[in-house]
Amino acid sequence: MYFVSLTARNVYTRKVRSSLTGIAIAISIAVVVTMGVLTHSLRRTAISILRTGDADFSVAQKGVSDVIYSSVDEKDVDLIGSYEGVENAIGVLVDMTKLDEDHPFFLKLGIPPGDLEAFGVQIVAGRKYEPDSQTEIMLGYRAARDLGKTIGDQVVIDDDTFDVVGIYSTGQVFGDAASMMSLVGVQTEERKPGVVTLVFVRAVEGANLDEIRARIEYDRPELATVRTESEFGRIDRNLELISAANIGVSALALIIGAVSILNTMVLSVFERTREFGVLRAIGWSRMRVLLCVMMEALVVSLTGAMVGVGAGFVAVEILARSPDLVGVFQPDYPGGVFGRALAIAFGMAFVGALYPAARAALLRPLDAIRHE
Amino acid sequence: MSDGAGRPPAIQIFDVKKSFDHGLVNALNGVTLTIGQGEWVALVGPSGCGKSTLLHLLAALDSPTSGRILVNGNDISGLPSLNRYRRFEVGLVFQLHNLLPNLTAIQNVEVAMFANGLKHSEQGERARNLLAAVSLSHREKVRPPGLSGGERQRLAIARALANNPSIILADEPTGALDSASAETVLDLFRRIRNERGVTILLVTHDREVAAAADRIIYMRDGRIVEPSLAAPAG
Question: Looking at domain B11-229, what is its CATH homologous superfamily?
Answer without folding.
Answer: P-loop containing nucleotide triphosphate hydrolases (3.40.50.300)
